[in-house]
Amino acid sequence: MRCGNLVALLLHGVSALAASLTQVTNYNNDAKAKPGMWVYVPDTVKSDALVVAIHSCQSSAQKYFQNSKIPWHQGSDKKGYVTVWPSSTTECWDVSSKASLTHNGGGDSNAIANMIKYAITQYKIDPKKVFVTGGSSGAMMSNVIAATYPDLVTAVSLYSGVPAGCFVSSSGAAAAWNNTCSGGNSKASPEQWGNVARAMYPGYTGARPRMQIWHGSTDGTLSPNNYQETIDQWTNVFNVSLTPTSSKSNTPEKNYRTDDFGPNVEGIWAQGVGHSVPSHLDASEAWFGL
Ligand SMILES: *[C@@H]1O[C@H](CO)[C@@H](O)[C@H](O)[C@H]1NC(C)=O
Ligand SMILES: *[C@@H]1O[C@H](CO)[C@@H](O)[C@H](O)[C@H]1NC(C)=O
Questions:
Q1: Residue 32: what pLDDT?
Q2: Given 56, 136, 137, 223, which residue is catalytic?
Q3: How far apart are CA 136 and CA 123, in angstroms?
Q4: For the chain, N or C: smaller number of CB within 10 Å?
Q5: How far apart are alpha carbons 276 and 148 in whole angstroms?
Q6: pLDDT tens digits, 40-74
Q7: Gap between the Cα atoms of 83 and 38, Å rounded
Q8: Which fold has domain 17-288?
Q9: Domain boundaries, the chain
Q10: CA angle at 183 for the pair 89 and 197, rounded to the nearest 5°
Q11: Which residues share a beta bridge with 270?
Q12: Is residue 179 lining ligand 1, measured as CB closer than 6 Å?
């Protein structure tokens, strides 16, 4: 890293720099789960914010970073914030085992929290500007991180996931698929979903991340029912009404509807869109205040 910086300094002004996605081999991870940590520090850091971009199933930090539909690399270059790209060791993220569904339980969520802590120190991040985003399995993990590490995250923008705890495995298996949940048949009251999230960090009473939840109406992988269940969960956690305080049609684009439930929960319903809703850099950055 230091050597890289020196080379960067020497080259500065000589030729255009080209920041690249780099692996952090030791991020002080004491969790049993050992996902990889990759980081992208733009050539010109202009912000003390951090965005954690969590990949979908059958992907990796590198694949997600290179995916032209995933705009966080460009956002980082333009606005000068650092991005962290966790890389799973399993096909999908572990959002099913007790270890991952518990604060400091040693699962994938614990390891990602360790990446965030490492990044805050290493890249001089303002701990009040830590943002998490992801699609599909990465969206599920974003919900799990929000529930297990509310103390570490400021805001979340997730695309096409399921509520925190919806993919729980009755056998306790890690990174298990859950057909009941994916099929939209895991239904519970807002209070029950709220309890599931609260139980992931028992006794926690501090601030919680603001949640922006996107889902497509024709999602054939993670049933659109999961949209309402996720809204139910976070409106309950924030103790706000399920009646939107504001509702805007054709926002942020045609056939999308944006519903706000007070300042901390926002739902974006994409009519006619399947799995997964494409990342909307401007709307997610706006939610993060970037
Ligand atoms: C799937 O998740 C639901 C909760 O969403 C849970 O009740 C059920 O036991 C899980 N199924 C399996 C096979 O683990
Ligand atoms: C939730 O909000 C209502 C008012 O809208 C209040 O009466 C109630 O005490 C709150 N519950 C919790 C757990 O804060």
A1: 98
A2: 136
A3: 28
A4: N
A5: 24
A6: 999 999 999 999 999 999 999 999 999 989 999 99
A7: 9
A8: Rossmann fold (3.40.50)
A9: 17-288
A10: 65
A11: 216, 256
A12: no
